Amino acid sequence: MSLLRWDPQDADRFRDEMNRMWSRVREDWNLDSTRPKTHVHQVENGYWIEFELPGVDPDQVSIEVDQDSLSVRGKFPASPIERDTREGESFHAVVNLPSDIDPDSAQAEWRHGLLSIRVEKAGGRRRHISIQAH
User: SHSP domain location, by residue (predicted)?
Assistant: First the structure.
């Protein structure tokens, strides 16, 4: 039986190698592409949430909000000219918020592929909201 010395840095090297390997897999398989970029900002009495959805038709986006979360669903458009792996794929993003919000206060605005949703803090029930395109 042979004894090997354990080097604590071996675990760090293993973790780093696994992270490198999985980041290459994510890039190769384009795993993050069906999730829109999302930005959440806390404002004085609520939240301002933005979703980057270039090329998406706002009429094909569905938004639901309840007292502590926001859900956005839709589909990236298919293009006959450019071939992108996310085109024609559905997306679904859920934003969990740290405090209760008032679903009745939710307002959605669409401008140049950017979906902006504003909700006020409070409590309430789930409801469907429409998008105002500019």
Answer: 29-134
Question: What is the C-alpha to C-alpha distance for residues 15 and 11, in angstroms, rounded to an integer?
Answer: 6
Question: Whole domain around residue 52: which residue ranges?
Answer: 34-133
What lies within 8 Å, CB to CB, of 101 at 6+ separation is 46, 47, 65, 67, 68, 70, 119, 120, 121, 122, 123, 124
In contact, 45 and 39? CB cutoff 8 Å: no
pLDDT digits (tens, 9 = 90+) for 14-26: 887 887 777 766 6
Q: Which residues of the chain are under the pLDDT cut of 50?
A: 124
Model pTM score: 0.63
Total number of domains constituting the chain: 1
User: If DSSP codes are grouped into helix, strand and coil, which group holds residue 78?
Assistant: coil
Q: Which helix (H) or strand (E) holds 83?
A: none
Report the 10 Å Cβ neighbour count for 99: 12
